[in-house]
Structure formats: C-alpha cells, structure tokens
Amino acid sequence: MLPSALQRRVIKMSGMKILKWLFPIGAILTVGGVFLYAILDRLSFGDTQGWGFLALLIGAPFAIVGSFVERKRLSVKQTRFWGRICWGVSALSFLLFVSVGNVHGWTFTFIFPAFVGFVTGAVLLL
Question: Does the CA dihedral 41-47-51-57 come out positive or negative?
Fold first, then answer.
C-alpha cells in the first residue's frame, strides 16, 4: 500500500497525463469522424450513419473541453499557434461545406469540425 501523500501524487500525475491527451484525441475523432462517415457512406449499401456520428459526437466535446485544459497548460505562444490552427481548420471545413452545398449526405458532417474549430479557437485565443 502506498503512503497517502505518494498515492495522491500518483493519482494527480495520471490525471494530468489523461487531460494532456484530451484535446488531441477530440480533434482526431472530430476530423476522423468526417473521413470515417465518408468512407462508410461510399463503400456500403445500408445505413452506416451510426459509426461516423458516434466519432463526431464523442470527439466534439473532447476537443472543446480539452481546449480549456490546453489553455492553462500551454505557454501563450503555443496557445496562439494552436488557436490559429483551430480557426484555420474551421474556415477550411466551412468553405468545404459551403462549396459542396449538399446537406443530405455525408458532406453535412463538415459542419462539425467548423463548429468545433471555431469554439476551440475562441477558447485558445480569447
């Protein structure tokens, strides 16, 4: 059995390691969910909406909550860099959504990275 002070430190360190990966995992799931939904829609004949939307619905909150954690953890220079990256991905995703113009297929999922990128960029930059 670990002493209580050491045990609290181990728990605190393991929690920080998990929080460190919250934003990247959320961003990967959000962007990956679009690609997963597109691939499943392209290769299948049946209803495959569940898997793509599952990745999007899990990834979006992870990325938004993770941006709050990253803002406290990163330096100002790194925070500005990642905020600009988020807004760039948001703008690109919104332009893809507008240029395709189809809201009845998998291309509607472009709106998820646009929204998540805008919110996380706002959290990191403001």
Answer: positive
Domain boundaries, the chain: 22-125
Distance CA 50, CA 125 (A): 33
pLDDT tens readout for residues 87-110: 999 999 999 999 987 777 778 888
Cα–Cα distance measured from residue 71 to residue 55, given in angstroms and rounded to the nearest whole number: 24
Q: Write the secondary structure of the chain as one string of H (helix), E (strand) and C (coil).
A: CCCHHHHHHHHHHHHHHHHHCHHHHHHHHHHHHHHHHHHHHHHCCCCCHHHHHHHHHHHHHHHHHHHHHHHHHCCHHHHHHHHHHHHHHHHHHHHHHHHHCCCCCHHHHHHHHHHHHHHHHHHHHC
Residue 3's pLDDT is what? 56
